[in-house]
Design a protein that fits this description.
This protein is of the alpha/beta class and 392 residues long. It has helices at 2-10, 14-25, 37-49, 118-134, 155-163, 212-224, 273-290, 314-327, 342-349, 373-391; strands at 54-60, 63-70, 78-84, 104-105, 108-110, 142-147, 169-174, 182-186, 188-197, 240-248, 258-267, 296-304, 307-308, 333-336, 353-355, 370-372. It has a six-stranded mixed sheet, sandwiched between helices. It has a four-stranded antiparallel sheet with strand order 10-11-9-12, covered by helices on one side. Helix 2 (14-25) crosses helix 4 (118-134), helix 3 runs parallel beside helix 4 (118-134) and helix 4 (118-134) packs across helix 10 (373-391).
Length: 392
Protein backbone atom coordinates (compact mmCIF):
# COMPACT_ATOMS: atom_id res chain seq x y z
CA UNK A 1 0.00 0.00 0.00
CA UNK A 2 2.85 2.38 0.83
CA UNK A 3 4.18 2.26 -2.72
CA UNK A 4 0.74 3.14 -4.08
CA UNK A 5 0.48 5.98 -1.56
CA UNK A 6 3.77 7.41 -2.81
CA UNK A 7 2.61 7.11 -6.43
CA UNK A 8 -0.64 8.93 -5.66
CA UNK A 9 0.94 11.74 -3.62
CA UNK A 10 3.44 12.39 -6.45
CA UNK A 11 0.44 13.56 -8.46
CA UNK A 12 -0.68 16.09 -5.84
CA UNK A 13 -0.40 19.63 -7.20
CA UNK A 14 -0.89 21.75 -4.08
CA UNK A 15 -1.52 24.95 -6.02
CA UNK A 16 -4.24 23.22 -8.06
CA UNK A 17 -5.78 21.80 -4.89
CA UNK A 18 -5.90 25.26 -3.30
CA UNK A 19 -7.39 26.70 -6.48
CA UNK A 20 -10.18 24.10 -6.39
CA UNK A 21 -11.08 25.14 -2.86
CA UNK A 22 -10.80 28.83 -3.70
CA UNK A 23 -13.24 28.51 -6.59
CA UNK A 24 -15.61 26.51 -4.38
CA UNK A 25 -15.63 29.29 -1.79
CA UNK A 26 -16.39 31.89 -4.44
CA UNK A 27 -19.68 30.15 -5.25
CA UNK A 28 -22.59 31.34 -3.11
CA UNK A 29 -24.44 28.26 -1.86
CA UNK A 30 -26.08 29.95 1.12
CA UNK A 31 -28.94 27.90 2.54
CA UNK A 32 -31.63 29.11 2.29
CA UNK A 33 -32.16 28.96 -0.63
CA UNK A 34 -29.24 26.55 -1.26
CA UNK A 35 -28.54 26.87 -4.99
CA UNK A 36 -25.95 24.10 -4.59
CA UNK A 37 -26.20 22.89 -8.17
CA UNK A 38 -23.57 25.34 -9.46
CA UNK A 39 -20.99 23.97 -7.00
CA UNK A 40 -22.09 20.40 -7.65
CA UNK A 41 -21.45 20.91 -11.36
CA UNK A 42 -18.06 22.50 -10.71
CA UNK A 43 -16.93 19.59 -8.52
CA UNK A 44 -18.26 17.09 -11.07
CA UNK A 45 -16.08 18.80 -13.68
CA UNK A 46 -13.10 18.61 -11.29
CA UNK A 47 -13.65 14.89 -10.70
CA UNK A 48 -14.04 14.26 -14.42
CA UNK A 49 -10.78 16.12 -15.06
CA UNK A 50 -9.04 13.55 -12.84
CA UNK A 51 -10.63 10.72 -14.83
CA UNK A 52 -13.21 9.92 -12.15
CA UNK A 53 -16.67 9.54 -13.65
CA UNK A 54 -19.26 11.71 -11.94
CA UNK A 55 -22.70 13.19 -12.50
CA UNK A 56 -25.27 15.56 -11.02
CA UNK A 57 -28.57 14.49 -9.48
CA UNK A 58 -30.93 17.42 -10.02
CA UNK A 59 -33.08 18.12 -6.94
CA UNK A 60 -34.96 21.06 -8.46
CA UNK A 61 -34.80 24.80 -7.77
CA UNK A 62 -31.09 24.99 -8.69
CA UNK A 63 -30.26 22.36 -6.07
CA UNK A 64 -28.37 19.14 -6.65
CA UNK A 65 -25.95 16.48 -5.47
CA UNK A 66 -22.68 15.52 -7.12
CA UNK A 67 -21.94 11.79 -7.22
CA UNK A 68 -18.72 10.16 -8.42
CA UNK A 69 -17.47 6.61 -8.22
CA UNK A 70 -14.30 4.58 -8.75
CA UNK A 71 -15.54 1.01 -9.20
CA UNK A 72 -13.74 -1.64 -7.19
CA UNK A 73 -13.33 -5.36 -7.79
CA UNK A 74 -16.17 -6.23 -5.41
CA UNK A 75 -13.93 -8.05 -2.93
CA UNK A 76 -14.82 -5.56 -0.21
CA UNK A 77 -17.75 -3.31 0.62
CA UNK A 78 -17.38 0.24 -0.61
CA UNK A 79 -16.26 3.41 1.15
CA UNK A 80 -18.33 6.61 1.11
CA UNK A 81 -16.67 10.02 1.11
CA UNK A 82 -19.19 12.73 1.89
CA UNK A 83 -19.45 16.46 2.43
CA UNK A 84 -22.18 19.05 2.07
CA UNK A 85 -22.33 21.79 -0.53
CA UNK A 86 -24.44 24.37 1.30
CA UNK A 87 -23.33 27.00 3.80
CA UNK A 88 -25.10 29.15 6.39
CA UNK A 89 -25.68 32.87 5.68
CA UNK A 90 -22.69 35.18 6.22
CA UNK A 91 -24.48 37.11 8.98
CA UNK A 92 -24.85 40.84 9.59
CA UNK A 93 -21.38 41.44 11.02
CA UNK A 94 -18.85 42.85 8.56
CA UNK A 95 -16.10 40.55 7.28
CA UNK A 96 -12.48 41.61 6.81
CA UNK A 97 -12.63 39.89 3.43
CA UNK A 98 -15.87 39.23 1.57
CA UNK A 99 -17.60 35.99 2.56
CA UNK A 100 -17.39 34.73 -1.03
CA UNK A 101 -14.03 36.28 -1.92
CA UNK A 102 -11.75 33.27 -1.43
CA UNK A 103 -8.92 35.55 -0.34
CA UNK A 104 -5.61 34.00 0.77
CA UNK A 105 -3.73 35.82 3.51
CA UNK A 106 -0.90 34.57 5.76
CA UNK A 107 -1.49 30.92 4.90
CA UNK A 108 -5.24 31.11 5.49
CA UNK A 109 -8.00 30.84 2.92
CA UNK A 110 -11.06 32.94 3.83
CA UNK A 111 -14.72 32.53 2.94
CA UNK A 112 -18.07 31.24 4.14
CA UNK A 113 -17.67 27.47 4.20
CA UNK A 114 -13.88 27.53 4.44
CA UNK A 115 -14.18 25.54 7.66
CA UNK A 116 -17.74 24.20 7.43
CA UNK A 117 -17.18 22.44 5.16
CA UNK A 118 -16.04 23.22 1.66
CA UNK A 119 -12.43 22.57 2.66
CA UNK A 120 -13.25 19.05 3.83
CA UNK A 121 -15.31 18.35 0.71
CA UNK A 122 -12.64 19.74 -1.62
CA UNK A 123 -9.97 17.68 0.14
CA UNK A 124 -12.07 14.52 -0.31
CA UNK A 125 -12.65 15.38 -3.99
CA UNK A 126 -8.91 15.90 -4.61
CA UNK A 127 -7.97 12.71 -2.72
CA UNK A 128 -10.46 10.63 -4.71
CA UNK A 129 -9.38 12.31 -7.95
CA UNK A 130 -5.70 11.56 -7.36
CA UNK A 131 -6.48 7.89 -6.68
CA UNK A 132 -8.45 7.72 -9.93
CA UNK A 133 -5.68 9.49 -11.83
CA UNK A 134 -3.09 7.02 -10.50
CA UNK A 135 -5.20 4.06 -11.59
CA UNK A 136 -5.08 2.37 -8.18
CA UNK A 137 -6.81 -1.04 -8.18
CA UNK A 138 -9.39 -0.96 -5.38
CA UNK A 139 -11.13 -3.96 -3.81
CA UNK A 140 -14.32 -1.98 -3.15
CA UNK A 141 -16.13 0.96 -4.72
CA UNK A 142 -15.01 4.44 -3.72
CA UNK A 143 -18.08 6.69 -3.75
CA UNK A 144 -17.62 10.47 -3.45
CA UNK A 145 -20.71 12.60 -2.84
CA UNK A 146 -21.38 16.29 -2.28
CA UNK A 147 -24.84 16.75 -0.83
CA UNK A 148 -27.35 19.59 -0.71
CA UNK A 149 -29.16 20.87 2.33
CA UNK A 150 -27.21 19.57 5.32
CA UNK A 151 -27.51 22.93 7.05
CA UNK A 152 -31.31 22.60 7.02
CA UNK A 153 -33.04 19.31 6.25
CA UNK A 154 -30.38 17.00 4.72
CA UNK A 155 -32.32 17.00 1.46
CA UNK A 156 -29.33 15.64 -0.46
CA UNK A 157 -28.39 12.88 1.97
CA UNK A 158 -31.96 11.59 1.99
CA UNK A 159 -31.99 11.63 -1.80
CA UNK A 160 -28.82 9.52 -1.93
CA UNK A 161 -30.58 6.84 0.12
CA UNK A 162 -33.60 6.74 -2.17
CA UNK A 163 -31.45 6.27 -5.27
CA UNK A 164 -29.73 3.18 -3.87
CA UNK A 165 -26.15 4.40 -4.24
CA UNK A 166 -25.28 3.37 -0.69
CA UNK A 167 -26.51 -0.23 -0.67
CA UNK A 168 -23.04 -1.77 -0.68
CA UNK A 169 -21.21 0.78 1.48
CA UNK A 170 -19.25 -0.56 4.44
CA UNK A 171 -18.04 2.67 6.05
CA UNK A 172 -18.06 6.44 5.54
CA UNK A 173 -15.72 9.40 5.98
CA UNK A 174 -17.39 12.79 6.41
CA UNK A 175 -15.07 15.80 6.09
CA UNK A 176 -16.82 18.08 8.60
CA UNK A 177 -14.50 20.44 10.51
CA UNK A 178 -12.48 18.77 13.23
CA UNK A 179 -9.05 20.44 12.93
CA UNK A 180 -7.80 16.96 11.93
CA UNK A 181 -9.11 15.46 15.15
CA UNK A 182 -11.06 12.22 14.91
CA UNK A 183 -14.73 12.42 15.85
CA UNK A 184 -16.45 9.08 16.39
CA UNK A 185 -19.63 10.39 18.02
CA UNK A 186 -21.99 13.32 17.44
CA UNK A 187 -24.95 14.59 19.41
CA UNK A 188 -28.46 14.36 18.05
CA UNK A 189 -30.71 17.36 17.53
CA UNK A 190 -34.39 17.72 18.35
CA UNK A 191 -35.78 21.17 17.51
CA UNK A 192 -39.28 21.99 18.71
CA UNK A 193 -41.58 24.93 18.00
CA UNK A 194 -44.29 25.68 20.56
CA UNK A 195 -47.39 27.78 19.90
CA UNK A 196 -49.77 29.14 22.54
CA UNK A 197 -53.15 30.65 21.71
CA UNK A 198 -54.91 33.13 23.99
CA UNK A 199 -57.57 35.78 23.75
CA UNK A 200 -56.87 39.41 22.96
CA UNK A 201 -58.13 42.28 25.12
CA UNK A 202 -57.28 45.85 25.99
CA UNK A 203 -54.05 46.12 27.99
CA UNK A 204 -55.87 47.99 30.77
CA UNK A 205 -58.24 45.04 31.22
CA UNK A 206 -56.03 41.92 31.15
CA UNK A 207 -58.67 39.99 33.10
CA UNK A 208 -60.83 40.08 29.97
CA UNK A 209 -58.25 38.24 27.88
CA UNK A 210 -56.07 35.14 28.00
CA UNK A 211 -52.37 35.99 27.86
CA UNK A 212 -50.51 33.69 25.43
CA UNK A 213 -47.12 34.95 26.64
CA UNK A 214 -47.92 33.90 30.21
CA UNK A 215 -48.98 30.50 28.87
CA UNK A 216 -45.61 30.22 27.16
CA UNK A 217 -43.89 31.25 30.38
CA UNK A 218 -45.56 28.29 32.09
CA UNK A 219 -44.16 26.00 29.38
CA UNK A 220 -40.68 27.46 29.75
CA UNK A 221 -40.76 26.93 33.52
CA UNK A 222 -41.60 23.27 32.94
CA UNK A 223 -38.93 22.83 30.26
CA UNK A 224 -36.08 24.26 32.31
CA UNK A 225 -36.87 21.75 35.06
CA UNK A 226 -37.29 18.81 32.69
CA UNK A 227 -35.09 15.84 33.59
CA UNK A 228 -33.70 13.85 30.65
CA UNK A 229 -33.52 10.09 30.88
CA UNK A 230 -29.98 9.21 29.80
CA UNK A 231 -26.65 7.70 30.70
CA UNK A 232 -23.64 10.04 30.37
CA UNK A 233 -21.77 9.28 27.16
CA UNK A 234 -17.99 8.77 27.42
CA UNK A 235 -17.32 11.09 24.44
CA UNK A 236 -20.31 13.43 24.47
CA UNK A 237 -21.25 13.82 28.12
CA UNK A 238 -24.77 15.03 28.84
CA UNK A 239 -27.72 16.21 26.75
CA UNK A 240 -28.59 19.90 26.65
CA UNK A 241 -31.58 22.17 26.06
CA UNK A 242 -31.47 25.72 24.71
CA UNK A 243 -34.52 27.98 24.94
CA UNK A 244 -33.77 29.69 21.66
CA UNK A 245 -36.34 32.19 20.34
CA UNK A 246 -39.64 33.66 21.52
CA UNK A 247 -42.15 35.87 19.70
CA UNK A 248 -45.45 37.10 21.07
CA UNK A 249 -47.77 40.05 21.28
CA UNK A 250 -48.46 42.92 18.92
CA UNK A 251 -48.51 46.06 21.10
CA UNK A 252 -47.82 47.11 24.66
CA UNK A 253 -51.46 47.92 25.38
CA UNK A 254 -52.87 44.68 23.92
CA UNK A 255 -53.14 41.33 25.70
CA UNK A 256 -51.18 38.93 23.45
CA UNK A 257 -53.29 36.22 21.86
CA UNK A 258 -50.41 34.23 20.37
CA UNK A 259 -46.83 33.32 21.18
CA UNK A 260 -44.19 31.10 19.57
CA UNK A 261 -41.11 29.53 21.12
CA UNK A 262 -38.32 27.42 19.62
CA UNK A 263 -36.19 25.02 21.61
CA UNK A 264 -32.97 23.23 20.62
CA UNK A 265 -32.39 19.90 22.39
CA UNK A 266 -29.12 18.06 21.85
CA UNK A 267 -29.15 14.38 22.76
CA UNK A 268 -26.59 11.65 23.38
CA UNK A 269 -26.58 8.04 22.14
CA UNK A 270 -29.05 5.92 24.05
CA UNK A 271 -31.71 8.60 24.27
CA UNK A 272 -35.05 8.07 22.54
CA UNK A 273 -36.38 11.16 20.80
CA UNK A 274 -39.90 9.72 20.72
CA UNK A 275 -39.81 9.44 24.51
CA UNK A 276 -38.83 13.11 24.83
CA UNK A 277 -41.64 14.09 22.46
CA UNK A 278 -44.13 12.07 24.52
CA UNK A 279 -42.87 13.70 27.73
CA UNK A 280 -43.32 17.17 26.24
CA UNK A 281 -46.87 16.36 25.21
CA UNK A 282 -47.63 15.21 28.76
CA UNK A 283 -46.33 18.55 30.07
CA UNK A 284 -48.76 20.43 27.81
CA UNK A 285 -51.63 18.12 28.77
CA UNK A 286 -50.98 18.70 32.47
CA UNK A 287 -50.89 22.48 32.01
CA UNK A 288 -54.16 22.37 30.11
CA UNK A 289 -55.79 20.39 32.92
CA UNK A 290 -54.80 23.00 35.51
CA UNK A 291 -55.80 26.02 33.42
CA UNK A 292 -59.01 25.95 31.34
CA UNK A 293 -57.76 28.88 29.21
CA UNK A 294 -54.46 27.17 28.37
CA UNK A 295 -54.12 26.23 24.69
CA UNK A 296 -50.77 25.06 23.33
CA UNK A 297 -49.26 22.76 20.72
CA UNK A 298 -45.84 21.97 19.34
CA UNK A 299 -44.27 20.68 16.17
CA UNK A 300 -40.93 19.01 15.44
CA UNK A 301 -38.73 21.21 13.23
CA UNK A 302 -35.65 18.99 13.14
CA UNK A 303 -35.11 15.42 14.30
CA UNK A 304 -31.53 14.12 13.99
CA UNK A 305 -30.46 10.96 15.77
CA UNK A 306 -27.26 10.96 17.85
CA UNK A 307 -24.54 8.93 16.17
CA UNK A 308 -21.63 6.90 17.51
CA UNK A 309 -19.08 4.52 16.01
CA UNK A 310 -17.27 1.84 17.99
CA UNK A 311 -13.69 3.14 18.53
CA UNK A 312 -12.48 -0.34 17.56
CA UNK A 313 -14.15 -0.17 14.14
CA UNK A 314 -11.79 -0.84 11.24
CA UNK A 315 -12.13 2.63 9.69
CA UNK A 316 -11.34 4.27 13.04
CA UNK A 317 -8.29 2.16 13.80
CA UNK A 318 -6.94 2.50 10.26
CA UNK A 319 -7.28 6.28 10.47
CA UNK A 320 -5.41 6.38 13.76
CA UNK A 321 -2.58 4.30 12.30
CA UNK A 322 -2.37 6.28 9.05
CA UNK A 323 -2.43 9.65 10.82
CA UNK A 324 0.63 8.60 12.80
CA UNK A 325 2.43 7.20 9.76
CA UNK A 326 1.49 9.92 7.26
CA UNK A 327 1.29 13.08 9.35
CA UNK A 328 3.08 12.09 12.54
CA UNK A 329 0.06 12.96 14.69
CA UNK A 330 -1.57 10.91 17.44
CA UNK A 331 -5.35 10.64 17.09
CA UNK A 332 -7.89 9.29 19.52
CA UNK A 333 -11.66 9.03 19.14
CA UNK A 334 -13.48 12.13 20.40
CA UNK A 335 -17.03 13.42 20.34
CA UNK A 336 -18.48 16.64 18.92
CA UNK A 337 -21.70 18.49 19.69
CA UNK A 338 -22.79 19.34 16.13
CA UNK A 339 -24.72 16.98 13.87
CA UNK A 340 -23.90 15.87 10.31
CA UNK A 341 -25.42 13.90 7.45
CA UNK A 342 -24.29 10.86 9.43
CA UNK A 343 -27.59 11.28 11.29
CA UNK A 344 -29.25 10.25 8.02
CA UNK A 345 -26.77 7.59 6.89
CA UNK A 346 -26.17 5.66 10.12
CA UNK A 347 -29.78 4.85 11.11
CA UNK A 348 -30.50 3.71 7.55
CA UNK A 349 -27.28 1.81 6.81
CA UNK A 350 -25.87 0.84 10.23
CA UNK A 351 -22.30 1.60 9.14
CA UNK A 352 -19.30 3.04 11.01
CA UNK A 353 -18.68 6.71 10.26
CA UNK A 354 -15.49 8.71 10.74
CA UNK A 355 -15.79 12.50 10.96
CA UNK A 356 -12.52 14.27 10.22
CA UNK A 357 -11.76 17.45 8.34
CA UNK A 358 -9.24 20.28 7.99
CA UNK A 359 -11.49 23.06 9.25
CA UNK A 360 -11.65 24.28 12.84
CA UNK A 361 -15.08 23.47 14.25
CA UNK A 362 -15.01 26.64 16.37
CA UNK A 363 -14.82 28.70 13.15
CA UNK A 364 -18.06 27.22 11.81
CA UNK A 365 -20.82 29.81 11.26
CA UNK A 366 -18.48 32.62 12.38
CA UNK A 367 -17.58 35.84 10.52
CA UNK A 368 -14.12 35.80 8.88
CA UNK A 369 -14.30 32.02 8.58
CA UNK A 370 -11.07 30.49 7.27
CA UNK A 371 -9.08 27.30 6.92
CA UNK A 372 -5.33 26.90 7.30
CA UNK A 373 -3.97 25.85 3.91
CA UNK A 374 -1.44 23.52 5.56
CA UNK A 375 -4.30 21.67 7.29
CA UNK A 376 -6.19 21.41 4.01
CA UNK A 377 -3.19 19.82 2.28
CA UNK A 378 -2.58 17.54 5.27
CA UNK A 379 -6.21 16.36 5.09
CA UNK A 380 -5.79 15.40 1.43
CA UNK A 381 -2.75 13.28 2.28
CA UNK A 382 -4.48 11.60 5.20
CA UNK A 383 -7.62 10.89 3.18
CA UNK A 384 -5.51 9.25 0.48
CA UNK A 385 -3.77 7.06 3.04
CA UNK A 386 -6.98 5.96 4.74
CA UNK A 387 -8.79 5.28 1.47
CA UNK A 388 -5.95 3.11 0.20
CA UNK A 389 -5.63 1.29 3.52
CA UNK A 390 -9.36 0.55 3.62
CA UNK A 391 -9.92 -0.44 -0.02
CA UNK A 392 -6.68 -2.24 -0.92
Amino acid sequence: MKSWYDEVIKLLDEDKAVDILKHSLQMDTTNPPGSEKVLAQYLADVLNSFGLKSHIDDLGNERGNVVGCIPGSGEKKGLLLNGHLDVVPPGAQAWTYGPFSGVIDAGKLYGRGASDMKSGLAALVVAAGLIAQAGVPLKGDLLITGTAGEEADSLGAKDLLTRGYLQNIGAAIIGEPSLLKLFAATKGALWLEFTTVGKTAHGSMPECGANAVLMMNAIINKLVHYSFQYSPHPLLGEPSMNIATIQGGVKTNVVPDSCKLTVDIRTVPGQDHSQIINDIQKILDELEQTNPDFKASFTVLNNRAPVETNPEAEIIQMSIQEAKTTLGIELKPCGVKYYTDASVFVPALDIPVLILGPGDETMAHQPNEYVEIKDYIAAIKLYVAVILRYLM
